Amino acid sequence: MGHMQTLSRRAFVFGSAAMAGGIAFGAYASAEAATSASDNPLAAGLGPNSVTFNPWVEISPDKITLIAQHADIGQGVGSVQPIMIAEEMDLDPGQFEIRFAEPSPAYFNTGFADEFAPFVAADQSPAAEEARAATLEWLRKSGLQMTGGSSTIPDTYQKLRLAGAVARETLKAAAAKRSGVAAADLRTQSGHVILPNGTKIAYVALAAEASKIPPVLDAQPRDPSKWRMLGKPMMRLDVRSKVMGELKFGIDQKAEGMLYASVKLNPSKGQPLKSYDAGKARSMPGVRKILEINNGVAVIATNSWYAMKAVDAIACEWAPSAYPAEQADHWKVLESSFKPEFLGKEWKKIGDIEAGLKTGKLVEAEYRAPYVAHQPLEPLNGIGLVTDNGMEIWVGHQSPRFVQWVAATAIGLKPEQITFHNQWTGGSFGHRLEYENVRVLAEIANQMKGTPIKLVFSREEDFLQDIPRQIAIARHRGSVDKSKIVAADLQLASTTPLKGLLERSGTPSKDPDGQLAAGLWNVYYDIPNFRATSYEAQGLSPSTTWRSVGASTSGFFTESFVDELIHAAGLDPMTARIAMCTVPHYRKVLETVAEMSDWKGPLGNGRGRGVAFVESFGTPTAEVVEVTATDRGIRIDKVWVAADVGKVVDPLNFESQVQGGVVWGLGHAINCELTYAKGAVQQTNYNHHEAMRIYQCPVIEVRGLENDPKVRGIGEPPVPPAAPALANAIFAATGKRIREMPFNKFIDFV
Q1: pLDDT of 10-24, one tens digit each?
Q2: Nearest in space to 52 (alpha carbons), one of 213, 211, 214, 219
């Protein structure tokens, strides 16, 4: 953890240009670096006659275990990551077990290199590539192990295939040594090395011999044309077990002799408990103990229901909120944040903005986006056991090493005294990057030493303690002249999602919050006078990462305003975007969605189509939404989506991720907001924060393109274009501009 706590990203990235050029990744990705005992966390726990070739493959005499480096939060890590290894090892589904990676710097996330470097994704200039290489070296030195930012496939596409290739060729070398047949004359199939005479030697039978020879470091992944599973429609490995209820999520886990806990924490986030009266709770069924913790109380009981009912009966007096108590005042703070003292950064400036705004027709608009919750199906939970030697914790989380630090800090231990077991997780959307349950669980388990404690948040407490998506206001100005957009001045005031998360992770940053710029400055239209500026509001509710983070709000603001400028110029929304797009393979994304939707201009008769294009996490995504204005409200009929990820590794999961992202984006745009009263969130369950219903869900047609020179992720990029495409479609159908989410405050939906 030392590097993560002390190494300044800015100091490293901008002070290390001499180290750039891609050498850092090449060195780590080599099999030699990945197989040394010091770099491989699997080496220390090997059983007799077992072998590990790298941090992702372990073979014993009775089984093959493949390591899923990232957390599975529903996006398919527990399937696609093992399959990438199995593809190269010639393993079939069912021939291996899957285990989540332990905390280790060996599992640092290379996929963040593009996102952390201060260049837009489409910039492939030498300066941009040097910055990415330096950022990659910082990631290696810091050992930043994290799932997020749609980085799962970009991070592992090369190294997991290489890991499988090294394992395959080393097993062939072991078989060659045993049989006397040259390795070049051997082949592999279905977990076996096959000799020329047809004799099969199982991989598990070769484990002991493979452990005694050096790994084959020059092994190379196969060309995609040779793939058996990747790139082809395949069922996710976890589908059956989830459908049948066999897969155990974190909330399903049990430990011998455990007791159950639930909590009531100050609803004004981060503030302490002043006093409490647990008289009624003490006599309730199943209650074993009442504990005071840092900012609330906990009940220990014989099951979760008893614990939840009893903690709800405790009367608490809370310290007041450190942020405005009422929602109207949150908006007032944002409104007053467009000032130099709150300047985050002027992210991009082209041309002469002031002169451009004075040319032709001036267009001005203000947009708003509220706080929203993460609301995954599985509420926060975990199991903790504290002994005199340290703590074990079983919890689903996206940042294993930070979990160790947070838990250790809460109870006065060292991070290395925390043993972390990652779990299958029933959704996150950014929720499992935070630590509300980790800190509380550590405090409770520390007061119950020697007894395993299972903590489960009630749904209401999960909502109350959820650190929400940023609240934001955009004030945009632009001008059009002679059927051309002349200028766009984009200004945004918002709470800071990434800086808050970093601070709570023990790595505070004084840099401008880069996520506020997502969807604001990475605009790829030919606008001769352009400026993008963010302002960081202070003193509001803490906020954090939410699916697609800054782009979830800024994408709505920017693409809605671009649509307003296009209409003011008298242009067609689709053809204008295609004509203005400056990146050829991004333009292809727009052309593809135009072809998919058979875009031919206005539909008329109460029907409308809207288009939006947003690049987030390096993935350009274009969406067309078609709606009909009925007597009862707006009906969403169909959505078309095109996205370019460089390589579609898992086509079925790709389609599912895109469709899920669209539904997520549309549902929250229509229905969802969190508001504060007396310092506490008012919406504490799904009926008050309602996502899209099945009857509202449109047909969603998806197409994945493979023109990008890099492999990209798809978990988050479908979200940002959904809201602006819908708003633009509503305008096309009704003539009404909606500039604030949720849309149901201004129009009905059916």
Answers
A1: 333 333 322 222 222
A2: 211
